[in-house]
Amino acid sequence: MSDLLQVTDETFEAEIVKSDLPVMVDFWAEWCGPCRMVAPVVEELAKAYAGKIKVAKMDVDKNRQTPAKFGIRNIPTLILFKAGKVANTIIGAQPKSYIEGELKKLL
Q1: Catalytic amino acids?
Q2: Quick one: residue 102, left, alpha or beta (phi over 0 = left, psi -120 to 50 = alpha)?
Q3: Domains and CATH numbers, the chain
Q4: Average pLDDT per run of 10 along the chain, which is 107 residues long?
């Protein structure tokens, strides 16, 4: 079973904003090369931080409202949430060490 949660415009509020755990959401698209590069890193971090941080993915082609609400113009964009509020935004394919460092700040 995957440690990654797939969220949609309809489930975003319940799964992300109202989450008791800090959350990292990967906004991505199937056709995006950098998104495919960062996907394995996101999956590794989801496994490593299971139970401590919720990790979710949102396909920006299938869900338009939420990415627009957060002003996402480039993908991949990782948004880190704590207590339902944006704690940090990481734009572009960044190294695992950088993403993990930002995740640790949520704990």
Answers
A1: 32, 35
A2: alpha
A3: 4-104 (3.40.30.10)
A4: 85 96 97 97 96 97 98 97 97 97 95
